[in-house]
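Sequence, please.
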């Protein structure tokens, strides 16, 4: 049996009112919640064995072998660029010309890491 551990987002109760008991012995509640993305460590398990363990960022960066950047330029042009000397020059030039509207790196997700490590897809 495969075991997969995934982060479960925490929640903060912004408001919590206990309205009174129900016939089943539980209490009726009214609440306002907000999820927060807190997660310290993740274990990826396959066939009962831990195949990776660490923070989500550590694991994803460890498997980030093909570094790429998603760039949105002024005017709406979107590009995905591999990290290489030629593209570093382009990005630097665009930054100096204030042409970059958004840029972010494209690391693998925990799901793609699991697939790479085990050869199996997550069936969640």
């Amino acid at each position: 049996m495969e075991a997969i551990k995934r982060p479960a987002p925490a929640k903060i109760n912004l408001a919590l009112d206990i309205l009174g008991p129900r016939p089943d012995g539980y209490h009726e509640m009214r609440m306002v919640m907000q999820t927060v993305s807190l997660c310290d460590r993740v274990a990826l398990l396959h066939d009962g064995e831990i195949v990776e363990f660490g923070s989500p960022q550590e694991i994803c960066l460890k498997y980030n072998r093909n570094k790429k950047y998603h760039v949105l330029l002024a005017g709406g042009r979107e590009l995905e660029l591999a990290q290489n000397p030629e593209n570093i020059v382009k990005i630097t030039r665009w930054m100096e010309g204030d042409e970059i509207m958004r840029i972010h790196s494209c690391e693998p997700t925990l799901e793609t890491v699991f697939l790479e490590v085990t050869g199996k897809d997550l069936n969640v």
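The two ends are 14 Å apart (CA to CA).
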